[in-house]
């Protein structure tokens, strides 16, 4: 039973996580997880993909849901802005400028991502613009993503309806509408969007101590799945000034892991994907 249905079909209710689907990408960095559906990679991308996130994750625990106080959940405030410098195998490949702002009505996270990658002897440069709107509990309401480059594409997701409605405007000019049966507290963690890890850190903090399991959705991959987050404490690393003295969070999948280092305000300072030789460091 598929967990993805067309716009014109009745949404299906399936167990979480959804069935695993194996597959290989064309050109990309080493995958963090096993790839699932490939149709979007062919229709929406132009060849620059640094990070592909959850497809097949660790086992799901029904106890891994946000904790609420007796008087109802408290608003999660996330206010941050800055620039990440992104490198691959030690060389710079781009940057991401972002802003996350909380208000009484919710939280909005926006970014401007510029990447330049050598591919087949030439440089491919693209810009993407993610915009995620959430409620005060960081539950997604809407998400949009625009890609500018040799070819353009975009997508919009409406999480306010059940099932969630996704509209893809593909690089060949066609539209592909999909319905996804997603839980209200799903976390959006899209490809090549570093500041989404800031929202992972904020959600982890709000859920309380200990290892936590989060249900996630990767819009560009059309994949719902799972990941786990745990706090490894203060890093004492001395040979890495970007990490020394910062709090170390570990995001795990069944294939590899992502390391986050955050400051005392829970602002992400560094993201490292060792298997992909990818690193993003906040610019001072």
Short characterization:
The protein is mostly beta strands and 284 residues long.
Describe it for me?
By secondary structure, this protein is mostly beta strands. The protein is 6% helix and 43% strand. Strands 1-9-8-7-6-5-4-3-2-16-15-14-13-12-11-10 form a 16-stranded mixed sheet. Strand 6 and strand 7 (153-158) form a beta hairpin. The longest helix has 12 residues, at 196-207. The protein is globular and about 50 Å long.
Layout of helices and strands:
Layout: E1 4-6, H1 39-44, E2 80-88, E3 91-103, E4 106-119, E5 122-134, E6 140-148, E7 153-158, E8 164-169, E9 175-180, E10 187-188, H2 196-207, E11 212-218, E12 223-234, E13 247-252, E14 257-262, E15 268-273, E16 278-282
Parallel strand pairs: 10-11
Antiparallel strand pairs: 1-9, 2-3, 2-16, 3-4, 4-5, 5-6, 6-7, 7-8, 8-9, 11-12, 12-13, 13-14, 14-15, 15-16
Measured on Cα atoms, how large is the radius of gyration? 18 Å
Strands of the largest sheet, in order across it? 1-9-8-7-6-5-4-3-2-16-15-14-13-12-11-10
Helix/strand-derived class?
A: mainly beta
Count of DSSP E strands?
16
Q: Count of helical segments?
A: 2
The rounded distance between the terminal residues' Cα atoms is 49 Å
Q: So what's the overall shape?
A: globular
Mean pLDDT: 76
Q: How many domains comprise the coordinates?
A: 1
Fraction of residues in H or I helices: under 10%
Major β-sheet, in short? 16 strands, mixed
Q: What is the percentage of strand-forming residues?
A: 35-45%
Order of helices and strands: EHEEEEEEEEEHEEEEEE
